[in-house]
Amino acid sequence: xxxxxxxxxxxxxxxxxxxxxxxxxxxxxxxxxxxxxxxxxxxxxxxxxxxxxxxxxxxxxxxxxxxxxxxxxxxxxxxxxxxxxxxxxxxxxxxxxxxxxxxxxxxxxxxxxxxxx
Length: 117
What we know:
Elements: H1 21-85, E1 98-101, E2 108-111
Antiparallel strand pairs: 1-2
């Protein structure tokens, strides 16, 4: 906290008890210098806080980008695994081709007839 020097103005005007104009304005100048220095400290603290917030935001954005990339890679791997797990007919589908899904005990068979037009 800034220590303010108070100007002694006396009890009544022109009673000779207050500070002289020179002393009064010297106190005013010191008060202003102290306030400017305190304001400068506050501005520095705000600047440091803004810089720290910007760095934290950049770090969070970078972490989020890594998390997004990891999610995308995992999703792609799962999607490819799912695609590869889908049954396919070794010789392709067409007229009079048998398409099997599942194992021999629990699968079903689709017999394709006709022609594709």
